[in-house]
């Protein structure tokens, strides 16, 4: 029971920070925050994403490229140009790493106001640190796993962030519904997004990328949006115009 609880917590909290901080803040600037809070969310993202921590800067730049070039040969992760989900994930990794290390020439519009803390990201991107996180997961499972099959969850822990990204970038361009007319293959994965914290409303998001609430219809509850409203009420963030 402890293992499944740990997995669920890692799944949802890691996904929350990727959706709230990396996606809605770093990439889309749905809201603003001061530099102190920005650094706090950098650190919290690292703590809860663990071995699969993603640089908000590299993620933000790459996601802006995805919107600008959706389903074209310049899209960093379109399933149209990959044989399978694994080749798409590898292509995404190569582009992500090239952005992080400054080896890819990127248009200025993709970099403008994207939060950057390179000293932090270079340290947290190190393989020894990532492997240390994985070792921690293994030790936890050695103590608490009750059945052999539970150990199969460890690889998902190890790549949790990219795993979430692959679900959306592959399946939310291949299956699901298309309630909004867009110029790409984005879909809504499920009527009520219980597993991806609103990210599964991918077609909604592509239609209205400036909208902080990814749910549109009465049944489309976006679990991250109430936290955005809470943080706004506490003065942690400020909503940008036309982003609510």
What does the model show?
This protein is mostly helical and 244 residues long. The protein has one domain (2-176). Helices cover 54% and strands 2% of the residues. The longest helix has 26 residues, at 2-27. It is globular, with a radius of gyration of 18 Å. It starts with a helix and ends in a 5-residue tail after the last strand.
How many separate helices? 11
Strand order of the largest sheet: 1-2
Low-confidence stretches: none
Radius of gyration: 18 Å
Number of strands: 2
What is the strand and helix layout of this fold?
Blueprint: H1 2-27, E1 31-32, H2 35-49, H3 56-68, H4 85-100, H5 108-111, H6 118-124, H7 127-144, H8 154-158, H9 160-171, H10 202-207, H11 225-233, E2 238-239
Antiparallel strand pairs: 1-2
List descriptors.
244 residues, mainly alpha, two-stranded antiparallel sheet, 11 helices, globular
Short description:
The chain is mainly α and 244 residues long. The chain has eleven helices and two strands, in the order H-E-H-H-H-H-H-H-H-H-H-H-E.
């Amino acid at each position: 029971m402890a293992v499944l609880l740990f997995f669920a917590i890692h799944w949802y909290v890691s996904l929350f920070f990727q959706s709230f901080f990396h996606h809605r803040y770093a990439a889309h600037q749905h809201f603003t925050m001061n530099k102190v809070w920005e650094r706090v969310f950098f650190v919290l993202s690292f703590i809860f994403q663990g071995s699969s921590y993603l640089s908000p800067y590299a993620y933000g730049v790459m996601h802006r490229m995805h919107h600008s070039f959706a389903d074209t040969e310049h899209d960093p992760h379109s399933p149209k140009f990959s044989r399978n989900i694994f080749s798409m994930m590898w292509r995404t990794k190569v582009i992500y790493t090239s952005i992080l290390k400054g080896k890819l020439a990127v248009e200025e519009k993709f970099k403008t106001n994207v939060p950057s803390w390179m000293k932090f990201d270079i340290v947290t991107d190190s393989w020894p640190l990532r492997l240390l996180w994985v070792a921690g997961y293994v030790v936890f499972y050695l103590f608490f796993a009750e059945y052999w099959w539970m150990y199969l969850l460890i690889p998902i822990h190890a790549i949790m962030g990219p795993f979430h990204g692959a679900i959306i970038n592959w399946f939310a361009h291949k299956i699901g519904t298309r309630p909004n007319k867009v110029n790409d293959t984005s879909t809504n994965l499920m009527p009520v997004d219980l597993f991806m914290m609103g990210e599964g409303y991918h077609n909604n998001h592509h239609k209205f990328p400036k909208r902080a609430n990814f749910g549109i219809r009465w049944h489309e509850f976006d679990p991250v949006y109430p936290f955005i409203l809470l943080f706004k009420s506490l003065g942690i963030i400020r909503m940008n115009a036309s982003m609510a």
